[in-house]
């Protein structure tokens, strides 16, 4: 097991190396000059040339790349061209904002998605099954930005139940410790703030949860259907085990492996790809941070942002792989 | 099995409790929330006091919160589309930065609240020598920086020395004052402190816009002590003399400013706190205004204006127009657009009124010349190329293109007040040109590349625009069409007109200058290097209880006079 984990972590390096070369090359090949963007419409060509020189952009591509990697090895994620601040320090709060949103969204997606899938398989070919599948289809097809705006319109503007944007009320000043506001407010015993933060996270996390929820429901259903047709389930039923136990105990455990794979992939996707949700709900997360950096051709932020997302993605998949063994003792890593 | 089911149970618990707290919060808060919006919309602090038991239970749990609730009565929340990049105004040209720094910093002079007329600020009076080479400013006494140090003439010298010795990467100072120290065209020879409260500027050559330039947002006075102490960090924790002090900046989230209790102008500012928050999506931002989460939103889609006007809890404020949106023809390329008859023909083919109805919802006026009417020197005698496809065809035939021709028209990938929907506007232009037999191939590319390629003359024609910096005609005509100007994207070069503009830069007699600018516009009208499209009126939407807010033509303004009424 330990050897396996070490091997997987070592595999991270070629993955990240490939990733960084790829990102670096793409940015290098597409047009768009950070100096021009920094200086804006007023820039003179001389000023642009001067700034390029200062940023090292007049150097050949591979030198820029090695400079960057050299810094990475010392733990330096670079300095933002746009804000001139250290990327590592700027990235961290954004990352945690996204992590918080992702955890809540995935919790919703897993809880509802898995149960809906189970019910759908259990009551195969009934109205309930069809209903779940129709909802899942709608969920997969619904554009997130539209869903987000509709949520805002209904629950914030019309009903005034929940706030429409941001992580907190502008007047609530959360003192960040972990940058996971739900946890920060609890640790500090700021229950009113906790409630405020929770109210703010509901709409964006529901919007974000929709697609993974639908995908999880569909995978759970098909996986459960396979398992529930197998002999041992028939035997269990024949022995008179209750339906609920058969489904949730006997079947789910064997059906859960593909579901876990999908959950891992979806969680990884949400971490890097929540840009639309983050934009609509004014959520200061990682997706928006990287997106803004792309707009501004802020190379160091783009590189490091993508590397961080890639690293997390790899780790989530590692964790999922390890969980397989926990769920199914027949799986061994040697 | 046990491990997994524990995990599932835990997840379930977390989710259920979240749902329960969330829902109950939602329900209790329904009345509270509408009071919240009441608080922002029409009632102010009184509701705070009378707030229901629900809020008491909140505030009893911690002191900080009740303080905030009290402060909430006089806190303005301002939502905008993007975060600032820097809060040291000299380091940037970006409007989102100035919107905030206008509250923190003050220059020697400033603009009147609703126009670009120059009025006193940190300098209460100034004298200009007859040759236009010496400016002597008399400073306000008793002004202190937010760090407690006194503001004196030496601080003015310090700030100018800092900027004049900079470079293009650090400070866009050079765009307004002809370069940096030692550069050939640099305007300022030296800045000296005559005594504690008198500063003298000696210029290398007269600059007609000198005093207007000084009023611009970038040239706010920073505390030398804080600059020394903070170094690079100054741009994220600025110290000036303005009505509000910087408190906190959470990137991409919010910037918090608090009242400067020692502000030198009595009775100002009226707010205790201002929070600039970021909501990138236009519709989401407007939603936040409707729910009462914020008090002011900018970047309102023109199409939303009528719905805001119908809402009794909201108000629409118009920003006086000081911009121009245009379609530019690139010079020095091998295409039929080099022929002035062709350019005039295309000018006759553009239905400006139709564009305004369709994309500006009336929040714009058609542009007939190269600068907006609000700027002195506007030539109202110019008659626009009227919309007349027949005449356009005739002109094309005269130029030898009766069968039309093809060209590439690029449109902006970003929305600006003067071109809110680049693609759709380009599509209308495309179909208008098609009517006279000319094929425009429309396309776009990312913003940075767009500016770069447009300025290096790689497009046949393109859409672009400009919002004035200092309210002077020079900032439109010379900046956008002068020879060698970095923002002359068309590459248009006309010696005769350029000479008029250069002359106008160096004389100080306003009457004469206006005359020169009017002549320059006549030449431009004949030559048609652009099709000027519109002067738009950007709007700001506010809650009905916000008063004293006056959007400034330059696009950024301090909220010194803003009040939240009860």
Summarize this structure briefly:
Chain A: InterPro entries: BPD_transp_1_N (IPR045621), MetI-like (IPR000515), MetI-like_sf (IPR035906). The complex is a heterodimer of chains A (334) and B (566). Chain A is an all-alpha fold and 334 residues long.
Distance between the termini of chain A: 6 Å
The CATH topology of the largest domain in chain B comes to Dipeptide-binding Protein, domain 3
Uncertain spans of chain A: none
Beta-strand residue percentage of chain B: 15-25%
CATH class of the largest domain in chain A: Mainly Alpha
Strand content of chain A: under 5%
- Report the average pLDDT across residues of chain A: 85
CATH superfamily of the largest domain in chain A: MetI-like
Structural class of chain A: mainly alpha
SSE string of chain A: HHHHHHHHHHHHHH
Under CATH at level 1, the class of the largest domain in chain B stands as Alpha Beta
Helix tally of chain B? 19
Pfam family, one (chain B): SBP_bac_5
Protein name (chain B): ABC transporter substrate-binding protein
Keywords (chain B): Signal, Transport
GO molecular function (chain B): peptide transmembrane transporter activity
What would your notes on this structure say?
The complex is a heterodimer of chains A (334) and B (566). By secondary structure, chain A is mostly helical. Chain A folds into two domains: 2-73, no CATH class; 87-327, MetI-like fold (Orthogonal Bundle), CATH 1.10.3720.10. Helices cover 76% and strands 0% of the residues of chain A. Chain A contains 14 helices and no strands. Chain A has helices at 2-29, 34-39, 45-55, 61-73, 87-122, 127-141, 144-158, 181-187, 191-228, 231-238, 243-273, 275-280, 286-295, 299-327. In chain A, helix 1 runs antiparallel to helix 14 (299-327), helix 7 (144-158) packs across helix 9 (191-228) and helix 9 crosses helix 11. The mean pLDDT of chain A is 85. With 566 residues, chain B is an alpha+beta fold. Chain B has three domains: 57-104 and 242-319 and 539-564, 3-Layer(aba) Sandwich (D-Maltodextrin-Binding Protein, domain 2); 109-225, Alpha-Beta Complex (Dipeptide-binding Protein, domain 1), CATH 3.90.76; 327-536, Roll (Dipeptide-binding Protein, domain 3). Chain B has helices at residues 2-43, 45-50, 53-60, 63-72, 95-104, 153-164, 174-177, 210-214, 224-230, 282-290, 305-310, 340-348, 352-360, 389-398, 422-435, 447-455, 474-481, 495-506, 510-527; strands spanning 75-80, 109-111, 118-120, 123-128, 134-139, 188-195, 198-203, 244-250, 254-259, 273-278, 296-297, 314-318, 323-329, 364-366, 406-410, 439-443, 461-467, 530-536, 539-543, 546-547, 563-564. A seven-stranded mixed sheet of chain B has the order 8-9-10-1-11-19-12, sandwiched between helices. A six-stranded mixed sheet of chain B has the order 14-18-13-17-15-16. In chain B, strands 4-5-7-6 form a four-stranded antiparallel sheet, covered by helices on one side. In chain B, strand 2 and strand 3 (118-120) form a beta hairpin. In chain B, helix 12 (340-348) runs antiparallel to helix 14 (389-398). The model of chain B is unreliable at 11-71 (pLDDT under 50). Classes of the chains: A mainly alpha (334), B alpha+beta (566). At the A-B interface, helix 2, helix 3, helix 5, helix 7 and helix 9 of A face helix 1, helix 4, strand 1, strand 10 and helix 10 of B. Chain A: It is found in: Cell membrane. Chain A: InterPro entries: BPD_transp_1_N, MetI-like, MetI-like_sf. Chain A: This is ABC transporter permease. Chain A: It comes from Filobacillus milosensis.
